[in-house]
What we know:
This protein has two domains: 152 residues, Four Helix Bundle (Hemerythrin (Met), subunit A), CATH 1.20.120; 90 residues, Winged helix-like DNA-binding domain superfamily/Winged helix DNA-binding domain (Arc Repressor Mutant, subunit A, Orthogonal Bundle), CATH 1.10.10. α4 packs antiparallel against α5 and α6 crosses α7. By secondary structure, the protein is mostly helical. The N and C termini lie far apart (42 Å). 34% of the residues are buried.
Amino acid sequence: MSSxxxxxxxxxxxxxxxxxxxxPASLRDDLLMAFNEIVKNYREHKWEPSELxxxxxxxxxxxxxxxxxxxxxxxxxxxxxxxxxxxCWALAQKYxxxxxxxxxxxxxxxxxxxxxxxxxxxxxxxxxxxxxxxHMDATIVLYTAKWLMAELVRLLHTLTTxxxxxxxxxxxxxxxxxxxTHGDKKRxxxxxxxxxxxxxxxxxxxxxxxxxxxxxxxxEHPGMQSFRKDVLKPLHKxxxxxxxxxxxxxxxxxxxxxxxxxxxxxISS
Length: 269
């Protein structure tokens, strides 16, 4: 795969729900719940230490990393080791004999230590900052968490970094409390939103490509031609979404994710 191309879940051939199938179900749940808690609170601009921290994620990642180094022997639940930073540093020497283990012995532990330190030392005071320091700290937490998750997927399935990142994006639970879902139906329950705003929010609740016919039905838009002209094509032009006019599918691009998450945060606050 060219480094200039972005991988998608379809390219990888591994469904997100199978990314951690090698783990005991309860340990997998510990990991995914901790990760999605970080993503959800970040999306809702809940940046305080009590609401967004990587402590639980670190414990799950450490447990999985140690299990991988032990020959893929994983306990049923995540555990919190004593002296967390020291225990992480010790992995490098303790498992020096394990082949192809630079990432689980050295890189992952170092990232966990940094994430755990932010978790323990957030909100301690930042002098002269023009940007909300909690926001900056939370952004580090979010992207470190995504890196750790992608690295675990890469280890468990021998994927490239791009492929693993695509899988992690598919794992994110994009739940919006005021988007109603029942079977194959979705409805935006907040009134007064434009068609573009509703489309962005609905796309946020889906991890990949969405058929334009589904969006059209969910929105109960009055006309397909105007929907394409006034909503889908402008979102594509502004690079908030990728609209495939051949396949008639649409998916959010990073600027669209940012716009949708900001919209959700502003309306939910």
